[in-house]
Structures are given as C-alpha cells and as structure tokens.
Design a protein that fits this description.
alpha+beta, 45% helix, 14% strand, Nitroreductase, oxidoreductase activity
C-alpha cells in the first residue's frame, strides 16, 4: 500500500471479528517490520509479548479492565520497554565497527559512553518508552499494510499484566496493540487538526 494511503486508512479499531485469524508467520512478519523502528544508539529498547492463545487473551483482557477487543482480536501484542537495553552496547559497537560506522579503536569508548549514559534509571525508562512507542507505531502500520486492523491501548493495569505473564523485572508494559480483522466496514479517519494548528516555525 502507498504510504499516504496507509496513513490515511489506519484507524483505531474497537470492534474485531472474533472469527478473524492471524498466522504465526504473519504475526512474526509484522513484528519483524516493527523492529525497523528507530531507537537511541540503535539499542532497540523493546520486546514484544505476543498473546494469541484464547486463555491467555482472556487473562490479558482481565488485566485490561475486561475490554472486549482483546478477546475478539486475533492477537494482542504487549509492547514492552527494556530498561537494560544498554547492556547490548557491545553488540551495537561490534555492528557499527563491522559496517564501517565506527573505527575499531573507538568501540570501548562507545560502550563506556552508553553504560554511563544509561546509569540513571530515569533515562533508562524514558528511552524505553520512546523506543517502544516508535516500535508500536511501526507495528500498527505494518499490520495495516498486511490487511489487519489495530488498536493501541494504554487502559490496563501494568502490575497485573506483569504478574499474569511473569514479565522479567527489566521489562515493563508500555502499551498493548490489538491486531485482527476489523468488524466494521472501512470508516474514514477521525478529525485531525491542520498543519497550521499544530505547527510553529522557528519559535513561539
């Protein structure tokens, strides 16, 4: 699908066809596309918890204040932020060096820089939220391009989600994206403010 058309047609779907399905291969392909999202230092501060089994979706539904869309969607992806993404600094430095972006002699400097930059827990969390949000948007566009509707959700109990799915301490739920077949006919995108209303050039 052409990009502008994709952006115009993506809407938040509240009603999914309970009979709709998504294959493991389709879901993995969509998640693969989501990993192309940008992140600071390419640390990729995200992890995806894909929930497809009926009983697991019901458990997630309960943690999300019983919103029906989670049960009816073919899959629900909990997009997690990774607080310890900076621990991949060595892998990132190796890749940059191998591809000619970073001289071999500067690898240790980069690794130390990243560990120092992310020594603050607030920075870890803020960057994880940003990166996970980029990934979630990319996930939704990829799903739409493959013919699936989506809905981003922040209405859930993070602690309940953590406990229900035994999420490791270094990961935390940022948002949930439901994916499935839209039940309604295609609808127009909701109101958007004009560029003039939302843009200021060169300062206020």
């Amino acid at each position: 699908m052409e990009l502008n058309q994709l952006l115009e047609q993506r809407i938040s779907v509240n009603n999914f066809d309970p009979a709709g399905q998504i294959s493991r291969e389709q879901l993995e392909s969509i998640i693969q596309a989501a990993t192309s999202a940008p992140s600071a230092y390419n640390l990729q501060h995200w992890h995806f918890l894909a929930v497809t089994d009926k009983d697991r979706k019901l458990a997630l539904k309960q943690a999300a204040y019983n919103q029906q869309k989670i049960e009816d969607a073919a899959a629900a992806v909990v997009v997690l932020g990774d607080l310890k993404a900076f621990e991949k600094a060595g892998l990132i430095a190796d890749d940059l060096s191998a591809k000619g972006y970073l001289p071999e002699a500067y690898k240790d400097n980069l690794i130390n820089t990243l560990h120092n930059a992310y020594s603050n827990e607030s920075t870890q969390r803020e960057e994880a939220i940003r990166a996970a949000s980029f990934a979630a948007m990319t996930l939704m566009l990829a799903a739409k391009n493959d013919g699936f509707g989506t809905c981003p959700m922040t209405g859930f109990d993070p602690q309940a989600v953590r406990e229900t799915f035994n999420i490791p301490a270094h990961l935390f739920p940022v948002l949930i994206v439901t994916i499935g077949q839209e039940l309604e006919e295609t609808r127009p995108q909701k109101f958007r403010q004009s560029v003039e209303q939302v843009t200021t050039f060169n300062g206020f």
